[in-house]
Design brief:
Layout lengths: L1 H29 L3 H4 L1 H8 L20 H12 L2 H14 L2 H26 L2 E2 L4 E2 L2 H7 L4 H35 L3 H16 L2 H30 L4 H12 L10 H16 L6 H5 L7 H30 L9 H12 L1 H34 L2 H18 L4 H42 L22
Antiparallel strand pairs: 1-2
Helix pairs in contact: 1-6, 1-18, 3-14, 4-10, 4-14, 4-16, 5-12, 5-14, 5-15, 6-11, 6-12, 6-14, 6-18, 7-8, 8-9, 8-16, 8-17, 8-18, 9-16, 9-17, 10-14, 10-16, 14-15, 15-16, 16-17
């Protein structure tokens, strides 16, 4: 663990944070602040029905996945323990100022999410019952570098199929065992069984599950947070002041020096919203839509929902309660804050929320791993084996400590993010060209439709005939 922590400190302090910030700023400028200019389009695309007229040679298929379902799968990974335990850990280590830097990275990073999701749509492939794709596929098809795709596929499988699952499992089991005094091993076994039932049902079952669970759990948590904020509206100005002051070192609350606040805000922000990490593009690729830009806009919107709404809700609850420096970390800090504001009812609600958040994230993480297992091995036996490994890892994670799980996630997520950022930077000119094509059609009062012949350099593009 000492070795892992040393590597993580160097990797994140000097490499990952720098690359994330520079790429986010570059994409924001080159797209002319697309995440703000086309915000209305983001919301509109959510309700679009599947449209296959430009994405395949086949007739409309009942198994085609809508933009909303693809958005839900991605959101089910984004909206997870990072929103409850991750935000709390950022505040615990970096102070309230970490929240400000999470906001900054979300506003800029949404442009990065836009680029990577658009590329996933451009280079997606058609499977037996749905589209599939992601960074590994655009690295091979777009850059012509299969070795890079294989490297990314291995990294994302380790990150999401193993390391991230540990964080979700230990957080979920900690919350339930702490609230109900149940044995963690028993809780872990139940969660493992519930996961097996879903993941052996394939992507159609995963997307249906996510489309039902994610909107419900996110709205319920937002409503509760709004209740807490409205009930304590008089404290809101002081909460904002605390966040801003701590972000720039005016107050050094809870270890919140500027450097630590920035680092924690970026790390836990990335873990939560995944912009630039290369995970959400795997979900973005499955949607059936008429233009790749549409799914890019939708995934950029997902970053806003995750960080600016859900993460902010958690931060406000913790800071309004005033218990952010009580010495507790992760989900225990969030639970303590809810208990302070709403009594035992708040603790039970957080337990229920973390169950839904973590469980849906476990399912989405598995899907990301399966997509990349298929890329490397192209074998049903490999997929079956990965399902078994996932089940074992969830059980192991249930018995780990949160800090040990974070260490594994940080190092895996760091190398995965570096690989993806290099690829999307090199391929970004194609996104800029498609954005111009999209906006030209919008200007002509047309519903944007894309064909691969609309792109001058379309080598490796298969589905947009």
């Amino acid at each position: 663990m000492e070795v892992l922590n040393t590597i993580n400190e160097w990797l994140w302090t000097y490499v990952v944070v720098t690359m994330l910030v520079l790429c986010a700023m570059y994409f924001t400028v080159r797209t002319r602040f697309v995440q703000f200019r086309l915000f209305r389009d983001m919301v509109k695309v959510i309700f679009e029905k599947p449209n296959t007229k430009s994405t395949s040679n086949t007739e409309n298929n009942k198994s085609d996945i809508s933009s909303f379902k693809a958005f839900s799968v991605a959101l089910s990974s984004r909206v997870g323990t990072g929103n409850l335990a991750g935000v709390a850990s950022a505040i615990f280590v970096g102070g309230p100022g970490a929240v400000f830097w999470m906001w900054v990275m979300a506003l800029l990073g949404s442009a990065t999410a836009f680029v990577e999701a658009t590329l996933a749509q451009l280079y997606k492939k058609r499977g037996a019952d749905s589209f599939y794709g992601g960074p590994a596929y655009y690295m091979e098809a777009g850059l012509g570098q299969r070795w890079m795709g294989v490297l990314f596929a291995i990294l994302i499988t380790i990150t999401f199929g193993i390391a991230n699952q540990m964080v979700q499992s230990t957080t979920l089991c900690d919350a339930i065992s702490d609230t109900f005094a149940w044995n963690k091993a028993v809780v872990g076994a139940v969660v493992t069984l519930a996961t097996v039932i879903i993941i052996f049902g394939g992507i159609q079952r995963i997307s249906r599950f996510a489309a039902v669970v994610v909107p419900f759990m996110a709205m319920a948590f937002i409503v509760l947070a709004l209740y807490v904020v409205i009930a304590n509206i008089g404290k809101l100005p002081s909460v904002f002041a605390l966040i801003i002051d701590s972000a720039f070192g005016v107050r050094s609350a809870a270890g919140g020096m500027v450097g630590v606040a920035v680092l924690q805000g970026v790390k836990r922000g990335l873990f939560s919203n995944e912009a630039g990490e290369g995970s959400a593009p795997n979900a973005a690729a499955i949607a059936t839509t008429s233009h790749p830009i549409k799914q890019g806009l939708l995934q950029a919107f997902g970053v806003f929902v995750d960080t600016l709404i859900v993460c902010t809700c958690t931060a406000f609850i913790i800071l309004i309660s005033g218990v952010y420096d009580c010495g507790k970390d992760g989900i225990l800090l969030t639970s303590e804050a809810m208990n302070h504001e709403m009594g035992s009812l708040g603790r039970y609600f957080i337990t229920a929320a973390i169950f839904l958040f973590a469980y849906s994230t476990i399912i989405a993480n598995y899907f990301y791993g399966e997509t990349n297992i298929r890329f490397v091995f192209k074998s049903r036996w490999a997929v079956f084996s990965f399902r078994i490994v996932t089940s074992i890892i969830i059980m192991v994670g249930a018995l780990m400590t949160l800090q040990d799980a974070w260490a594994y996630v940080d190092i895996c997520m760091g190398f995965m993010t570096i690989t993806n950022l290099v690829a999307i930077f090199l391929l970004s000119p194609k996104v800029f060209a498609m954005l111009k094509h999209y906006e030209k059609q919008k200007k002509d009062m047309q519903d944007p439709v894309f064909h691969k012949d609309d792109l001058e350099e379309n080598n490796g593009v298969e589905c947009w005939n």
